[in-house]
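Suppose you are handed a protein chain with no further information: no name, no annotation, nothing but its sequence. What can you learn? This example shows the usual starting point.
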Amino acid sequence: MNENPRHIRIESYNYPLPDERIAKYPLPVRDQSKLLLYRKGSIGETHFTALPDLLPPDCVMVFNNTKVIQARLHFRKETGALIEVFCLEPLLPRDYAQNFQQTTHVAWLCMIGNLKKWKGEVLHGTLHVKGTDITLTAERGEAQGTAHRVDFRWDNDGVSFADILECFGELPIPPYLNRDTQESDKETYQTVYSKIKGSVAAPTAGLHFTPRVLEALTDKGIEHEEVTLHVGAGTFKPVKSEEIADHQMHTEYFAVSRHTLQRLIAHGGEAIAVGTTSVRTLESLYHIGVTLLGNPDPSEEELRVSQWQPYDIPSDIPTVEALQAVVDYLDRHELSVLHTGTQIIIAPGYRYRVVVGMITNFHQPQSTLLLLVSAFIGDDWRRVYDYALAHDFRFLSYGDSSLLLP
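A reasonable first move is to predict its three-dimensional structure. Written in structure tokens, the prediction is:
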């Protein structure tokens, strides 16, 4: 039975991170980053190009193929005040792909920069898209927590919202880089396999992969499967409460194909996850399967994984059985892809069900991502981070990586 982590004190997951250890820019060649290897308690280092030789030859790797959108929009009021509107997730239509295809009106949940200067008037911006000038308006709606609904409208039905973000938006690099977005970030802050638009932050463990590393994995007979989880700004949200019981996880939306589920089942329900976003997706699949075995026809809301569900509803159902329940659900509804969401928090006391190895960067002190790593390798997370600090590893989104094989 899982130990409930609600009373974990986040101050126990702190470590000193000097600003100079945060990688402000990526390396010129992605796969030349350092790779820390943690295997059964021993710690060593190599370079990322060595990854294919370090993995079990018959494993399946799971990548998150989400693509970062240019989610920051800037409007200047007639007074000169600059208002930043940061698109977090679509509200109308809720489906990402449909939202990006809209041609006159969409609504998003947004964070507002310089909110005090936006008194409620409609903001206007003129932009040049597809050879013509259009006017984009933004109207602020009701608050939802620290975010607001914003309705965007524009006066040219030959232009999609995807076009507007591409022309008018700015790529939202992480706030802890303490610098402006540069043109080079448009390429370097995307994985080479990114496909599905929707994230406001990159799944950064994937930034180290190059076509030659992916080809070397294939040559070794290592399968790669893809899932899509759109990373929200909540990934940067620090834990400000003393105990994590008071920390609210954002819902993240993900999609997993029936084919990928079948490949996981064929591998005994075990996978190597590329990044914490893939970890959260894979582990959520198990708990969705548990839900379906107890309730074969849940509502859309019941199908999602709530923050504390893995701890409040412990289960000894075998992983393959839980994953098969998800496949059966898709078959009953004649679906080829599962679309749902998760608020899962993975913290010490969590029992991993699908992930047997993970590739991940080095995370911020007192973050939920550090809790996730600690849940995977226990108190050895301190040894891993002490080693990384002592051996000149680069930290956070553009930093170096680790392969964790407990």
